[in-house]
Here is the input.
Amino acid sequence: VLFYETKDTTELNRMAKDQLNALFETLSSAQKEDIIRLPVIDCSAAFWPFISVWKNKLMENAKIEGMDIYGDWDGSVKPLFSFQNKKTYLVIIDRNGTVCFFEEGQLPQSKIDLARSLLLSLL
Here is the structure.
C-alpha cells in the first residue's frame, strides 16, 4: 500500500489513511506480515538549508503514524508511476507487482471502501 504525497497534501487523505490503518490493526500477525505500508513524501522541493528540517519532520511524523516514512529526495519515485507534482496518490500493488488500485486526489468514501475490500481480497 503506497501513499504518495507532497508536504502540502499529507492531510488530504487523512480519512483514508486512518481507515486503512484501522483495518490493518484488525488483521492477524500473519496477515500484517503480508502487507507493506509505505507512505512516500515528495521531498524533491527541499533545498540544502532546510533539508534537516524536512528530515526531522519526517521522523516526527513516522513516530506519530507508527511506521517508516520514505522521503523521495530526488523525485525518482514520481516517474515510476507517472505521479504529478503537488498531487496525492493511493496505489495498491499485489504480490506479483501488479498495480491493482491507483487513485489520485482526495478519496471519497466509496474509493476508500473499494481499497479496503481489495486489500482483504489480496490476503
